[in-house]
Amino acid sequence: MPTSNTPSVTDVAQHSTVRSSTDRVVVTGGSGFVGRAVVRSFAERGTPVTVVDHRPPRIDPDHAGLVTHVAGDLVDPAVRDAAVPEDTAGIIHLAAITSVLRSVDNPVETYTANVEVTQGLLELARRRSVGRFVLASTNAVVGDIGHGTISEALPLRPLTPYGSTKAACEMLLSGYAGAYGMATSALRFTNIYGPGMGHKDSFIPRLMRAALSGEGVEVYGDGAQSRDFVHVDDVVQAIVAAFDKQHSGNVIIGSGRSISVLELIDAVRAATGEPLPITHVPAKNGEMPAVIVDVDKARAELDYTPTVELTDGLHTVWQDFRAAAALAPAGAT
Ligand SMILES: NC(=O)c1ccc[n+]([C@@H]2O[C@H](COP(=O)([O-])OP(=O)(O)OC[C@H]3O[C@@H](n4cnc5c(N)ncnc54)[C@H](O)[C@@H]3O)[C@@H](O)[C@H]2O)c1
């Protein structure tokens, strides 16, 4: 349960001078996988950033003077209040319950963490004249359309509490854009991969762990299910563009190229040089046969161009996993 303790607000650098500016960006979930890359990108161009997250951010020492951390749970209104200073230009809202399985087990907690927090942040933004709000949404808002191509024109038909809470957040953003003229942008990401995903249990990290340990991997069914994998650098490109262009609306952000699970495993073999033997196990009930997306709207509205080729992108993940393994104490997994 959230507490109403006063949130702690700390400059990441002990002796730094945090700039007073009206171009501050608040990044919720800025200590997470996508958040760290977003914070780095804004800090690299000299933008002051407030990270609000349970966990401390990992910041390049060169950027420490630009980054402030508000520690606490965004479900707590006092944490949200401390996280959005008056000089904020925009909010990039990444913090959420991100696990589909956890959302199925805990639908009420997911509603609170995803929908109520988004409503609370939008309202703070309105009251403090924060003009821009970018939400991390997902293609899961449209549910399963078989082998069809997912575009923004499809109706919202989520199949899990995770998807439905993101769809509800999109509706809230739309209302705040319509009623108060805020620039609210919902970016519907496909499967994101890249350095910094070592804490995740999704398929690419599992493949990397298997490659490191020399073990094999299980493939559900025949492995022909297809997915769109987008590199975190391309996701950051889209988030920064939505912010800079004061974009409003919903756009799909993916690589625009779907591959099967077996093709992904071949690409991981190429990136790692490891054999990765596979075992086929029975298919899971309800697994989507395909995720195929159209990114033309993002190209038109955000000048978005996916740039990272899959094997090159997987190589960045492999280097990250190898570096973490080299630093881990002997015997740690
Ligand atoms: N990673 C993907 O493939 C993917 C795909 C589609 C959408 N998304 C969305 O992108 C966003 C970022 O995903 P990610 O992969 O970086 O997730 P992540 O789990 O790595 O990071 C989320 C961060 O938010 C923080 N957080 C969560 N709830 C919080 C709360 N109530 N208060 C304070 N901090 C909180 C966590 O501590 C964590 O650091 C999420 O909204 C997710 O739903 C991700």
TrEMBL record:
Q: Which domain of life is it from?
A: Bacteria
Q: Which organism is it from?
A: Haloactinomyces albus
What lineage is this protein's organism placed in? Bacteria, Bacillati, Actinomycetota, Actinomycetes, Actinopolysporales
Enzyme Commission number(s): 5.1.3.2
Q: Could you tell me what this protein is called?
A: UDP-glucose 4-epimerase
Supply the alphabetized keyword list: Isomerase
| Ranges of residues in domain NAD-dependent epimerase/dehydratase | 25-251
Q: List the SUPFAM superfamilies.
A: NAD(P)-binding Rossmann-fold domains
Gene Ontology molecular function terms on file: UDP-glucose 4-epimerase activity
Q: Which Pfam families match?
A: Epimerase (PF01370)
* Membership in a protein family: Belongs to the NAD(P)-dependent epimerase/dehydratase family.
